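Hello Y.,

Per our agreement to keep a running log of every chain we model this quarter, I'm adding this entry. I've kept the format consistent with earlier entries: sequence first, then predicted structure.
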Amino acid sequence: MNLIQHLDYLFNPRSAAVIGASNIPGKWGCDILNLLLTRGQRQVYPINKNRPEVLGVKAYPGLSDVPGPVDFAVITVASEALPAAMEDCARKGVKTALIISGGFAETGTEGSKAERKVLEIARRGGIRFIGPNCAGHFNTFAQLFTAPYLPPMNQGPVSFITQSGNLGLVVLAMAHEMGLGFSKYISSGNEADLHFEDYLEYLGQDETTKVIIGYVEGLREGRRFLNLAREITKKKPVVIMKVGCSDCGAQAARSHTAALSGSDEFSDAAFRQAGVIRVDEVSDLLDVALIMLGQPLPRGKKVAVLTVGGGLGVIAADALKKHGLELSELSPATLKKLGSVLSGRWSRGNPVDTSGDISYPCLLPLLEDKNVDAVVISGPIWTPFGFAGLMSTAPWERDYTVSPDEILRGIEEEYVRNLEVTMELMKKFQKPIVYSVWVSDEVKSRIVYQKMAQNHLIPYLTPERAVRALARLVEYSEYRGIARR
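Predicted structure for the entry above:
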């Protein structure tokens, strides 16, 4: 059985067992069993030698007592009981396992010896496993979840490999707030058997994964990682947050997941040559994934900034320079067109500061300009879809007695129409239009925001984040040979 076939059993098992199943909420053996019983359509077997039932389901003293085959086992027993549990898996013919238990290589020499013993048993039995010392995994398309304590996860095109379970929870919670959906998630733990590179290879050929993001403390097969990434990034983006670069960080990584990070041997240059997008901040993992999904690859790094106020434009301009992008020099024809749709107060240059008088039609001249490869729009919530244009057709222009609900419907209808036009323009000109807009929780419930989320056009909260993400999009476009270097 090859790697891909083995990992298919990990992400799409027909049957699963929980060794160490428990009735006590808060214990891994209870919370994971509950997830397996309530999600998906597969046979689930609780293993508990002391109880005839767990969570109302018939339990079995050991795997040998289970009447049917078991494709996948979750092992939650204490570390000293793990070798015996793995022996049971081998005798039963289990294909894959996930080991929650900690207390192994991350604790020192004795823990490393115990981990090697478990690995030897698994190898003899033909078992591939995640962990130990991990926090679960999921496949939303198979409704398979072994990672408790997560917010509800929507199906989506992003897959995430993390060498920190807690960091994984943070990123997934942030993604949930953004409305970004996921395909697969792996908390890889100590990687005694399956390594980061194995999951990368699987996700590279996975049709439901369009963008791969990863948190890395140490790569055990650096050359293989780069070779895999070089092939995968020809088809889909790989976004990596690599930490443990400083001496202090490397020591923390070793004590956390036994990662062999050492110094920062996989330099920015090596990542760039393989097409890997390297980020430094947690939020960038999601920001960059979002822009990769929702935007066309630009043909260059010249950017027009459209803003309702000078301060936002200055911040965006500074960010462009910091991240290697350029302010476009707008053509005389573009300036003339902008002057015809904006008031006399506008800046007459780039950034296009409209002094509060945003008019939706001013977007088209920017996209038509050959000196513009992308547009960043920054301002309050109404900025992306126009304000002056909205005012000319709003219900209160026609009748001051209309109800607030009718006014709101008119606003939303106008916003949705403008958003649809925006998406058409992005496709026509193949130029990204990136929003930097503060959005309240109330606005997130509105139709226009939901439509933005469905199309991966969620606004960034600050101009800096929008520009940082755009810079990574340009970097990837250069690697793919689309953008001018």
